[in-house]
Amino acid sequence: MMLFEIDKNSDFSIHNVPFGIFSTENSQKRLGTAIGDKVLDLKGLAELGFFNALDIPLSVFGNDYLNNFIGLGKTKTNSVRTLIQSLFQSDRLKEYPHLWYHLKDVKLHLPVYSRDYTDFYSSQEHATNVGRMFRDPANALLPNWKHLPVAYHGRASSLVGTEVGIYRPKGQVLPKGAQQPVFKATERLDFELETAFIIGKDSEQGSPVSTAEAEDYIFGMVLLNDWSARDIQQWEYVPLGPFAGKNFATSVSSWVVTMEALEPFRVRGPVQDPEVLPYLMYEGNKNFDIRLQVSIRDQGGIKTEICRSNFKYMYWNMAQQLAHHTVNGCNVATGDLMGSGTISGPEKDSFGSMLELTWNGTQPLTLNDQSERSFLLDDDTVCMTGYAEKEGVRVGFGELSNTVLSAKG
Questions:
Q1: Among 29, 185, 273, 321, which is least packed, fewest CB within 10 Å?
Q2: Distance (Å, whole) CA 99 – CA 80
Q3: pLDDT higher than threshold 70 for residue 1
């Protein structure tokens, strides 16, 4: 018999058991897992000896980040996960109520320390939409796009967690019809609906990771919001791509959902035509049916859902992304973050950015309070959620939410 009932619509079913970092008013950062509407203190559980048989140093559970825990390897981390599932479904934790906290009573933190952050551009629908807006509509995809997973190297120092305010960035903007840029706060602040996978073990420099090996290097997934200042980005991105229009902030959800928890939700990916080069070929189902939503909560607290998409739409899968990332010998490290790129679907309400939803601001959205948005305003809160569900089993990520703050200075 389970320790307590879990709402059937909870992201944190017993089939999930994600890992994250939390603190309370009376405790420092430590490892925890979310079950239902509660957080289980894994450091406290370790101190009581529940993980002794797994030979894991107690210090691992008291860290500020998950990196050392992830670095134990999948055999041990999944053993922790399955033990927690077993304990919850028995009555062995009944006498330890002090190990449980309500989610609303804890502070959640950035789950991993990422030395490096890479952001891919792997949704065909998104890339096509952007190409139609800014290039030749008849040739929206650039010639290389279907031959390799395009990506850029992001700024790991500006990764932030949920509930962290995002200051409106300033930069150079070229006004319409002008010949010279001006310096100003962006007027086209945008979100990008993404997921990301977290590297679970180091690779060696000079040694590529194949698509067959890739999943051994992927610990789990999070939601990701790749904030973008479109007017700054449009002026600067030629010829080297994103820089100040994106590096000011990228938000990461709090709970890392393991690949073991996501295993039941594998699906076949899109047909890749033309055929990819041998190092990008793979076997099996590498896409995942993860339903994604974005809402805007205005200053008055009224929430409007503006997007429903799905991770299964991705043209390039995670194994291909990692294989391409390392094919030249680039090494990856535990905790490194690999963003999916904006996840857009085939229908307009599945587009994963304001840029697409409003078609570069020409078709504003009407929110539930009857106000309009072409791009994000100060005090808007962007809320992202995602979950997979099949045959009564639900596994989700919780909510990633951040509020836009006015520019500093």
A1: 273
A2: 16
A3: no
Q: What percent of the chain has pLDDT over 90?
A: 95
Active site residues: 126
Task: Give the tens place of pLDDT for each residue, 240-286.
Answer: 999 999 999 999 999 999 999 999 999 999 999 999 999 999 999 99
Token code pair at residue 261: 């928890």
Higher pLDDT, 3 or 343: 343
Q: Is a pLDDT exceeding 60 seen at residue 178?
A: yes
pTM for the whole structure = 0.97
The 3-state secondary structure of the chain reads: CCCCCCCCCCCECCCCCCEEEEEECCEEEEEEEEECCEEEEHHHHHHCCCCHHHCCCHHHHHCCCCHHHHCCCHHHHHHHHHHHHHHHCCCCCCCCHHHEEEHHHCEEECCCCCCCEEEECCCHHHHHHHHHHHCCHHHCCCCCCCCCCCEEECCHHHEECCCCCEECCEEEECCCCCCCCEEEECCCEECEEEEEEEECCCCCCCCCCCCCCHHHHEEEEEEEECCEEHHHHHHHCCCCCCCCCCCCCEEECCCEEEHHHHHHHEECCCCCCCCCCHHHCCCCCCEECCEEEEEEECCCCCEEEEEEEEHHHCCCCHHHHHHHHHCCCCCCCCCCEEECCCCCCCCHHHCCEHHHHCCCCCCCEECCCCCEECCCCCCCEEEEEEEEEECCEEEEEEEEEEEEECCCC
Buried b (16+ CB within 10 A) or exposed e, 120-142: bbbbbbbbbbbbbeeeeeeebee
Contact yes or no for 266/311 (Cβ under 8 A): no
